[in-house]
Amino acid sequence: MVTITPSIVVVSAIILLALVFFATEPVPVDVTALGVMVTLMLAQPASGWLVSAGLLAEPILLFDPAQYPQQALSGFSSTATLTVLAMFILSDGVQRTGIVQMLGAKISSFTGDSENRQLGATIGLVAPISGFINNTAAVAILLPMVTDLAERGGTSPSKLLLPLSYASMFGGMLTLIGTSTNILASDLSGRLIGRSFTMFEFTELGLVVGVVGTVYLLTVGRWLTPERIKPERDLTEEFEMADYLTEVTVRADSPLVGQQIQRALGETDFDFDLIQLIRDGQVFLEPLGPKEIQAGDVFALRTDRDTLVELIDVEGLDLVPNVTVDEEELEAGQSGQNLVELVVAPGSSLVGESLASSSFRQRYDATVLALRRGGELIRRRMDNISLRVGDTLLVQATTESIERLDDNRNFIVAQEIEQHHYREEKIPVAIGIVAVVVALAALDVVPIVVSALAGSLAMVATNCLRPPELYDAVQWDVVFLLAGVIPLGIAMENSGAAALLAEFVVLTGDYLPLVGVLGVFYLVTALLTNVVSNNASVVLMIPVAVEAAQTLGANAFAFILAVTFAASTAFMTPVGYQTNLFVYGPGGYRFTDYLRVGAPMQLLFAAVTTVGIAAIWGLTPPA
Known about the structure:
This protein is α+β, with helices and mostly antiparallel strands. Among the domains are: about 200 residues, no CATH class; about 90 residues, Regulator of K+ conductance, C-terminal domain (Alpha-Beta Plaits, 2-Layer Sandwich); about 60 residues, Alpha-Beta Plaits (2-Layer Sandwich), CATH 3.30.70. It is built from 27 helices and ten strands. Strands 3-2-4-1-5 form a five-stranded antiparallel β-sheet, with helices on one face. A five-stranded antiparallel β-sheet has the order 8-7-9-6-10. Helix 7 packs antiparallel against helix 8. The protein starts with 5 loop residues before the first helix and ends in a 7-residue tail after the last helix.
């Protein structure tokens, strides 16, 4: 029986605090992870001072004294962290060739208006792609295609986007490189039991899980998935903007005549946005600030009825009669696209900022007409609302501004943009590089971290990626998250906290068969990963799983696999996985939708995965 020591108490307190921060996100999860790392680093020397002062009976040992602070900083030099970093670069190299977008464009030719074919094509495309490029990137690339697919086929995007996210998750379980979670779990497995994952270690089970998930999403899941957004071809109808868009004309006696727009209308207490200026039949979009207002100018405005009455009275404006400001009207400014949905991406610099504090209009030469947060639509007084990951903005801008927004990593444009800057001539090269990386690792010629880093260098050497693009390719929040949580796993092992938690789980062995205990680990990890980061779940649960398996005399590798698979099945909440947040706004979902569709799928996967692991790898240690 494990004795509770000060080291266990300290680690347990840090874990509990970290879980609260991961779940509530008062700061980004990567910042929380770095805070955990720093706290662990400070706890050990601080305990020595307390022992010297007679305030503590024994020092707190979270890391090997001979390897302190190297163990505390090991997350930055971990092969898992470096492999994930390299995989982001490889994924971006493939993405910039346009191959995924081309595949997406081809499927619309045979899906038509059949929701079944659209759903099948969506799942059939994203799942295998997610096995070889980062599944978060796969969803970001395919989201505009799926949204347009729904629009052209007269299908609600809500019926396709949640399956897109779910399929990317179980598709990521086809290979070692499908998710950062797999790579981290492999590294932990190698350190704890001396056995890492091979490239196709769990492909057999991944295929079984994928087939089960696909069948579920095409049948029960399709029935459970709600149609939150009605099939509309007009974005202004989708965002219910009819009562918030109007046109007014400037009277000859208006006090605005002769003033610059930015001075006359830029600083006002009225809640409105000037969307476009129509003068002598010509339409002008942002930037409008320097233009001088003339009598007869027509302004298209975003405002509510009460504000409009006040604005007309004070500023000398007249309502333009018999005009409907819809998508066609807002797209009249230029030949290209002027109206799109923008999704705030993970790691965006706008997270925690508002439209006002980020100077959104001035920075991007774009006007936000509405904000959708899940099922909530906000169309007034949006300027001071703090933005979150997954928020969807209805934006009007010039074609050039929208193209720049499409290239901006702060956003995902939810419609396909007609751009021709993909490096299509590099498709064979980029695919070849990824194939070589996979082959070298699969044949055990070199470790995956070596082949992945070499592949990243090859992407630059062959001009699939340009040197400055390397830094944009990496999701640095994930890298810092990994670097921050890896030392927590080491501290759990060294302090005895993992062994203590394992004792509680082992008690279930008195009432359940070994496969039942494996199922318990799967379910506990699945519940945890729906609330906190999947990478944090793996770091917390794998040491406990290994301790429990060794205590029960079971196959520790099987228990590690159960945790790994469970950590990538955050189906029940929008916050459990980044791809769920991607589709939260564009799908108009409610929090409970994830529970309704995801909970049965979570239980189904628990049964299939547990039985599959027992059948393929066995539950007793290999001879």
